[in-house]
Amino acid sequence: MKFKKLLIGSILLLAIFTLAACAGNNDEPSQNEDADTETEQSADEANGDQSTESESDSMEGMDHSSSGEVPAELASAESPTYPIGSEAVMNAQHMKGMDGAVATIEGAYSTTVYSVTYTPTTGGEKVEDHKWVIHEEIENAEEEPYQSGDEVVLNADHMKGMDGAEAVIESAEDTTVYMVTYTDVQTGDEVTNHKWVTESELSPVK
């Protein structure tokens, strides 16, 4: 009788130890899963922060708005397609939030417009194919328009480090350029007296 009781007691103890061991094994993966989840969340948050910072850095130094002042020698367009006070849709991607925005024309001027590549005077990476700089924003500009490959010095402050920077002309076009005010389609912020948008980058409001 005593032998049976001992045998039953031994079996119960063995069962208890077995259940406890199984419970312990089940807990460990759960803890590891929690740790893995926290690690993944931290990595995602870090990547998100880096992405936001990168986007912000790419636009740093760009003056969306301006005072509206233009070079004294800049000639107003006689019969612009989009007169001052009219509206037009922008088809340009110089900056985020511009493409598709409805712009109000603040000024229309006849000039030569250039895309340029330059190294900012404030340091940093070279700015490739910046749009746009007009002929009157080139230091000691010659009377004749510049050609692709010509080297010039910029006299414009659209971006930090632009004024006084040495630049290479990438393209040149005689056209009407416009100064515009519009609402950024991404942020909802108003951009006033933005320089510049070319005539080919505008279309009628439907």
Description:
This protein is α+β, with helices and mostly antiparallel strands. It has a domain at 75-204: Roll (SH3 type barrels). Helices cover 28% and strands 31% of the residues. It has one helix and eight strands, in the order αββββββββ. Strands 1, 2, 3, 4, 5, 6, 7 and 8 form an eight-stranded antiparallel β-sheet that branches. It is globular and about 40 Å long. The N and C termini lie far apart (101 Å).
Topology readout:
Elements: H1 2-59, E1 75-76, E2 87-90, E3 102-118, E4 127-134, E5 151-153, E6 166-183, E7 190-198, E8 202-204
Question: How would you summarize this macromolecular structure in one to three sentences?
Answer:
This is DUF1541 domain-containing protein. The protein is an alpha+beta fold. The chain has a domain at 75-204: Domain of unknown function DUF1541 (SH3 type barrels, Roll).
Per CATH, the architecture of one domain is: Roll
The helix-and-strand class reads: alpha+beta
CATH superfamily of one domain: Domain of unknown function DUF1541
Number of strands: 8
What are the key terms here?
alpha+beta; signal; disordered N terminus; 8 strands; SH3 type barrels; eight-stranded antiparallel sheet; DUF1541 domain-containing protein; globular; single chain; DUF1541; 206 residues
